[in-house]
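User: I would dearly like some help making sense of a protein record. I have put the entry right below:
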Amino acid sequence: MRRQSEPNSTESPLEKGRLVLASASPRRSALLDEMGLEFEIHPADIDETPFPDEAPRELVRRLARSKAQAVTDSRRIGERRFILGSDTLVVLDNEPIGKPADPEDAIRMLERLTGRIHTVMTGIAVLDVQTSVILDQVVESQVHMRDASRDEISRYVALGESLDKAGAYALQGEGRRFVTQVEGSESNVIGLPLEETRALLEKATPEAGGVA
């Protein structure tokens, strides 16, 4: 799968088909599309189990790096040079909240989150295949949610939107109904912080004056 950018004589190397996204997330693909980048998708297959006592911030950093490395090791990337790995967690009371197992689990998650402020952390990692240099960053946003009844939450979960989302809601969809404020990057909450991702990609690109 490839995304095409408009012809531009000032395109960076990342806009010339040298990027691989190590994720099957349609949300991350859509966000990279917004950046005007051309890329291929090769989802990483890794064990995402946290290490004992691993802090959420270190977990998303490690998983983003591991996803980029896993795709590089798979030898599926051809002439592609840069691998983007990413991982997003919802964190409440320093506890990672993943994707719900079923609708009832989604309801329980949202009952915990509504009426409170939680953190969304995304780890991003860019690996230069040629040099094996990997750059990473963790971006955090604070999400404020209003109170909601179990009945309202149940009606939302019945839409089916929450089942493949960390924290059981989608900011870019109907889940926005519960959110009153986002402090920081909204695209981070969706799955990929746009400004920080572009900056990291540009830093990793030797032709742009980044890592050699």
